[in-house]
């Protein structure tokens, strides 16, 4: 039973690996319309890659929950969890960004002739995730809050991009499948992961409203955003997460 949490961690790793395989299978169709605009049909497999990242996040939550429940915390489990998270929430989201950026360039005139150097910025995501997780492992200070954006949160945000683009939710495909937008997302997410901005840790010591008002507020606002906006809620939740954390900064210290 003590290895059950580690088993869940390995399942997390499997989901991340499957996401990478699915992402790297191309199949998009790009049509130049008479109006001069480009119509992009995303490969469906990239949406399944996004689903795998969400599944990895669910499993990642349960491996920690099970470890605490069974009092099976171990140094090996801690390291194994970080290694799995680098793949599922660093490398896999980086692969998704690479594919969307490639499609964005392909939709431009002479886009297929662009140097592969233009795709290198997406490597900042897995590199920042690895840095964030390594720093978390050696941080012996108070765990009342996170320092910087957790890698799973960053990975989940990026995983919403294929869903929004594939279904063209709120007509946002043209905005998201744009090299400058994607570069901005890479820089923002990478910076937030390696930063020391104090952010809410959703682990509860008790469930009283007075001592957890910031957590309950964040959960309520996030659920409202998900109900109203669906996949697009990822960006709203990120902004809400940062604003609520800054609002209750004193409580986190």
Model description:
The chain contains 10 helices and 4 strands. The protein is mainly alpha-helical and 253 residues long. The protein folds into 2 domains: 4-139 and 150-196, Four Helix Bundle (Hemerythrin (Met), subunit A); 198-253, no CATH class. The strands form 2 sheets. It has a two-stranded antiparallel sheet. Strands 3-4 form a two-stranded antiparallel sheet. Helix 2 runs antiparallel to helix 3 (75-106). The longest helix is centred in the middle third of the chain and has 32 residues, at 75-106. The chain is globular and about 60 Å long.
Could you name the key traits of this structure?
253 residues, Four Helix Bundle (Hemerythrin (Met), subunit A), 4 strands, two-stranded antiparallel ribbon, globular, mainly alpha, 10 helices
Produce a short descriptive summary.
With about 250 residues, the protein is mainly alpha-helical. The chain has helices spanning about 5-25, 45-70, 75-105, 125-140, 150-165, 175, 180-195, 215-230, 235-245, 250; strands spanning about 30, 40, 145, 200.
How many H/I helical runs? Answer: 10
- What is the C-alpha radius of gyration, as a whole number of Å? 19 Å
Which CATH top level class of the largest domain fits?
Mainly Alpha
The major beta sheet can be summarized as: 2 strands, antiparallel
